[in-house]
Design goal:
Length: 594
């Protein structure tokens, strides 16, 4: 695609030429994203708006921020990265979000929504303090991201800083994945249509709009007016998600918000095997049939979390609260106080945002809320701010919370029921973004934990403690070790928090124990087991295998897991090396495990 390497040529275009260019850019997006997967709908909706932004503002001298960043493909194309789209979201390829390493035009790498206005507030204040406030600070935020409370914390401060003006560009396409919920959505829709008030003006912000976000000249006029106002201002642009691509505007419920590889001619994708989310979605409906106290909550992600099925079946017991995870959790606490059993379906990575609410609004009151953490562990193409790798460490701090990691679909159903039956405190389940795969049967049950494989020799050499979906990998590692004459037992605790009381005793009957989890090692279940062994004066050394304490770049899930040493071969090699060299057992009171 012939794309101006910089915005100079873009600015020299007439409006008509710019619209023709927008058409070519749209075709480039459709062909490129259908070939790689990614956020097709959101980016088709901001083609003209982003062209107008780069014709009016001089990035990177002027700062352009994108909230969530999933809609920054056009920005990337206009800043010299069109060629990189052939490897979008692939190992070593272009990130699907802004990337500071890729370009000085990029600033926010975090794909968690509702943050851009706070960055803008801080940057504007910083520039003012350093006497550099001559340039514009522009933040593009979607109507969905604007349902996040943090955005309003920022607007409150931006409005109070007239000498450090921020230009807020509201990209209002009326949706997150699904139509944006709540009173704000209705208010935005009424603006310009005789609305009784204007929330932005009431906060003290200037308001320009609504503007047709697909009319380049109208966008440019509004953006120039905003720039010349020199005071905090909201430019309200109305756009269409998926614009210009019929399959995205057709029967697709989410207007192709996030797609896999598609046939560009039809917009159809490859058939996918049932996922963990599909299993959860069905079981939640079955649970809802059996128990009328079960209610479900999502933070603007009914489709991706699978709760849409429950919502269709029980519309009165289903709540989409918008991109408002903190509210979701504490509203769930309220529902539990009212005698219901809420199931909060939330990606692992987004739970981080509501940690205080889990700790102080749910657990402190010992409320029966069940958190279903989808996309736990390595997710893959969405990169470091999407891997769900910190929930075990965070939740290990929560008194009274029980965390389960099902190893397969049958255990997911089983553990969801067990969690829903617990009435004296919070529970959580975690599973990955992956096909659900074949069941992994147990050969025995010891208390709450499943024995997946018994070693052939006594005294047994190695105990592998497998958490969650990596059980097949652990069994394959056991086979490699047994081929080397090493006896191995593989167990799955099912509930990783609190530590199963039988695990330390089981470890005592082995020379060595290794824990395997698709989560950050730091604060993971392995450390808890090591300390439990130390406290029980069990001298068996415990090796913890998991994800490193680092931000892991985007790439295919299997490749990233292998890169973190979570393949059968890598686990077996680690065990063999430890057996050769020996590792010290954790001593009682030693907070650090091997
Ligand atoms: C804190 C948080 N929760 C959920 C998500 C998942 N998510 C990604 S994009 C999106 C919808 C964003 O809607 P909007 O801001 O209106 O942008 P649009 O896609 O419509 O351009 C959601 C819910 C997220 N990125 N961050
Ligand atoms: C941008 C965002 O947070 C989501 O749209 C993210 O892309 C999740 O994608 P999956 O639902 O495919 O995991
Ligand atoms: Mg939107």
């Amino acid at each position: 695609m012939d794309v101006p390497g910089d915005a100079t040529r873009l600015r020299d275009m007439s409006t008509e030429e710019a619209h023709r260019f927008a058409g070519r850019l749209r075709e480039f997006l459709i062909d490129g994203v259908c070939a790689t997967g990614g956020h097709l709908g959101p980016n088709l909706g901001v083609v003209e708006l982003t062209i107008a932004l780069h014709r009016v503002f001089d990035s990177p001298a002027d700062t352009l921020l994108f909230d969530t960043g999933h809609q920054a493909y056009v920005h990337k194309i206009l800043t010299g990265r069109a060629a990189g789209f052939a490897r979008l979201r692939q190992t070593g390829g272009l990130s699907g979000y802004p990337s500071r390493r890729e370009s000085p035009h990029d600033h926010i790498e975090n794909s968690h929504a509702s943050t851009a206005l706070s960055y803008a507030d801080g940057i504007a204040k910083g520039r003012h303090l350093r006497g550099e406030s001559g340039r514009a600070v522009v933040a593009v935020i979607g109507d969905g991201a604007l349902t996040g409370g943090m955005a309003w914390e920022a607007l409150n401060n931006i409005a109070a800083a007239p000498s450090r003006p921020v230009i807020v560009v509201l990209n209002d396409n009326g949706r997150s994945y699904a139509p944006t919920v709540g009173g704000l959505a209705e208010h935005l829709a009424a603006l310009g249509e005789g609305a009784s008030g204007n929330v932005f003006a009431d906060l003290g912000l200037a308001y320009l709009g609504p503007v047709d976000g697909h009319d380049i000249a109208a966008c440019e006029d509004a953006l120039r007016a905003a720039r010349d106002l020199a005071r905090p201002v909201v430019v309200h642009c109305r756009t269409e998600k998926g614009r210009g691509y019929a399959p995205a505007r057709g029967d697709d419920a989410e207007l192709m918000h996030a797609v896999g590889v598609l046939d560009p001619a039809t917009g159809t994708g490859l058939p996918a095997a049932p996922t963990w989310t599909d299993v959860f979605a069905e079981e939640l409906v079955a649970l809802g049939e059996a128990r009328e106290d079960i209610v479900a909550i999502t933070a603007a992600m009914p489709g991706p979390t699978g709760t849409a099925l429950f919502g269709a079946r029980f519309p009165g017991r289903f709540f989409d609260v918008g991109i408002a995870e903190q509210h979701a959790v504490t509203s769930a606490a309220g529902l539990a106080m009212a005698g219901l059993h809420p199931v909060v379906a939330i990606y692992s990575t987004f739970l981080s945002r509501a940690f205080d609410q889990v700790l102080m609004d749910v657990a402190l009151h010992r409320l029966p809320v069940t958190f279903v953490l989808d996309r736990a562990g390595i997710t893959g193409p969405d990169g470091p701010s999407h891997h769900g790798m910190w929930d075990p460490a965070l939740l290990a701090c929560v008194p009274g919370l029980r965390l389960a990691a099902p190893r397969d679909a049958t255990r997911l159903r089983e553990l969801l029921r067990e969690a829903a039956a617990i009435g004296d405190g919070p529970t959580a389940l975690r599973f990955p973004k992956a096909a659900a795969g074949a069941d992994v049967p147990a050969v025995a049950r010891i208390g709450e934990l499943d024995v997946l494989h018994r070693g052939r020799r006594m005294p047994l050499d190695v105990l592998i403690v497998s958490y969650g979906a990596l059980a097949p990998v652990c069994l394959a590692a056991a086979a490699i070790l047994e081929a080397r004459g090493i006896g191995v037992t593989v167990v799955d605790p099912r509930w990783s928090l609190p530590v199963d009381p039988g695990l330390a005793g089981l470890a005592a009957r082995h020379r060595y124990a290794v824990t395997v989890t698709d989560a950050s090692r730091a604060g993971g279940p392995g450390g808890a087991l090591a300390r439990a062994c130390a406290d029980a004066a069990v001298r068996t050394p415990v090796r913890e295998l998991g994800l490193p304490g680092a931000f892991i770049e985007h790439g295919p899930r299997p490749e990233l897991l292998a890169g973190a040493g979570l393949s059968a071969e890598a686990i077996a090699s680690r065990v063999l090396a430890d057996l050769d060299t020996g590792i010290e057992p954790v001593r009682a009171g030693d907070g650090v495990s091997a």
